[in-house]
Amino acid sequence: MTINVTIRPGAALTDAETYRFVEEHILNAEYDFVLRHSYIPDRAYNKEGIVNILANYPWQEYGYKYGRWHRVLVVEELGGLIPWRSWEHERNSPLMLTDPRTGREIAEFQGMVMKAEQPSGTLLFAGDPAFAGVIRTTRDGQHTISIVGNTRLGHPGYDLEIAKKARDLTQIMVPGHPPAVRFLNPPQDYVKHLGPWLADHPDKPRKSRS
């Protein structure tokens, strides 16, 4: 397969390296049996979504934070005892985009494939941070391009749900025409057990019972 869409001036696909990567590793990717029958090719590497975003939006460099402390339930409330929770690395942790100059937090994203070096660094993003887009990360010298969605598209802990909505949005998004989206606020029961990002607090926080 080859790229056969109109590319806006300055969009990511005007970069020859990006163009070649997308044709080789996205449009003509070969997956093993297990991966081919998973959600990942459709929701993380969706061909239509990635090509549409990269044909319409430029790459922009952002900082990021990846990996967060989360209070995990160890012992449930029993016989009047206070529940015991332990600080652990959050599973399927979202990724926070930050301003590379000031460190200001911009938007939190979730995706099925986020091969970023922990706990912080820089990456390339194309799309609209308020909704969804495509990130290019580098790990062990290898580039990965994949779809991510703003965590307000669904429950931040449910990467499959957010990935599905992000896939659909990336297929239709164009600059200057924000899609009609119903945003969700994360439930308080989830938020109250979140801790600091590893980039800001590499040591495990103090234990907490409640």
Question: What would your notes on this structure say?
Answer:
The chain has 210 residues and is of the alpha+beta class. It has one domain (12-75, 88-197). Helix content is 22%, strand content 29%. It is built from 6 helices and 9 strands. The strands form 2 sheets. A 6-stranded antiparallel barrel has the order 1-4-5-8-7-6. A 3-stranded antiparallel beta sheet has the order 3-2-9, with no helix packed on it. Helix 4 (47-56) packs across helix 5. The longest helix has 12 residues, at 16-27. The N and C termini lie far apart (54 Å). The model has no long low-confidence stretch (mean pLDDT 90).
Poorly predicted runs of 5 or more residues: none
| Fraction of residues in H or I helices | 10-25%
Discrete helix count? 6
Strand content: 25-35%
Largest sheet: 6 strands, antiparallel, barrel
Neighbour order of strands in the largest sheet: 1-4-5-8-7-6
How many strands in all? 9
Q: How many angstroms does the end-to-end distance come to?
A: 54 Å
Oligomer: single chain
Structural class: alpha+beta
**H/E element order:** HHHHEEEEEEEEHHE
Based on CA atoms alone, the radius of gyration comes out at 19 Å
Mean model confidence by pLDDT: 90
Total count of domains: 1
So what's the overall shape? globular
